[in-house]
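SEQUENCE-TO-STRUCTURE ENTRY
===========================
Question of interest: how does this chain fold, as expressed in backbone structure tokens?
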Amino acid sequence: MNSLELIEIIGRGEDSKHQFKKDINNAVSLAGEMIAFSNAKGGMIIIGVEDNGEPIGLTQEDISRLNQLISNAASNNVKNPINPITENINIGDKTLIVVHIAEGGDKPYMDNTGVTWIKSGSDKRRVTSREELRRLFQNSDLVHADEVPVTGTTENDIDIEYFKNFYQENYEESIEFAGLPLIHLLNNLNLAVESKLNIAGLLLFGKEPAIYKSAFIIKAVRFIGNDATGDKYSDSVDIKGKLKIQFEGAIDFIKRNLKYPQQDKGINSLGELEIPLIVFEELVVNAIIHRDYFINAPIRIFVFDNRIEIISPGKLPNNLTIENIKSGNSNIRNDILTSFATKVLPYRGIGTGIRRAIKNYPNIEFENNRDGETFTVIIKRRDDL
């Protein structure tokens, strides 16, 4: 980094990736700042600058002391240790230290007292909820939401006939022939943890998953007009049940709320769906399988006059970007659900769903809202019908 780049950064003020410090004397406080950046997307601490962005500079004694303090804090006050990079940069006759902290690959990071810090705007705050902590573990691939046991569930919550048919079809033997108690079989298939169903087991094979996880449903609304805040709608339904039922219900909702133009066909023709059905099959199944089940919220499907929106809880995981997924890249968020999805849903699991949807209907946009923790697919409706 050169001085002009640093002046430009300082001129923009503090934000979630840039923190200004006049001086630092406390290793514990410094560790908290570095932890917050490591648990987020990384960032810079610029030392020798007032909060208002005025550079005041550091002496050579300050620079020597601070570099030693930074090294000690990163090694001794952060679990697991991190590796900040420092630069001494001159702005005029004033020398500043820029501390670069990369996004950590071993989240969650915490201080010596066990406190986990995350960014909150330009400041930092403690992690106070289990949900936030789980997401940090998820980012490091240490825990997946679909593995989490669901309190209150037992093997009696399994739709046994549905599960028997699934087992027979996919393993070519009956569950009775397997010779194991049902709960042991569910544990062996990673659908239960000891005596409880996990989220995957409940959503894949549960009789009524919404009894235990009322937010893990699909809310679908056909609005009149194009305003999501409007109160006029012609169709609204909460789609509950196991994932196969949710998928089928979502597709039925979309089909009955779109147009079927006849094109060049005769007057007695039923017409064809205005947007190819495969587009919705690919996008809905992706929403179901790849949503963040640590977030207690439903998938939402909104049909407007000019567009259809499919809104999934959770931003794109890890370092995925919209351009990545359009090119066919994928990152598995829910390992167990993904492994079963090819058997119960029209899902291939090879990362081509988004590409297939775009190939069949290019007028699709994507929004990855990292702050709001949502991923939205916007399918523009044809205006020539």
Q: What stands out?
A: The two ends are 54 Å apart (CA to CA). The mean pLDDT is 90. The chain has three domains: 3-127, 146-207, 218-380. The chain has 13 helices and 16 strands.
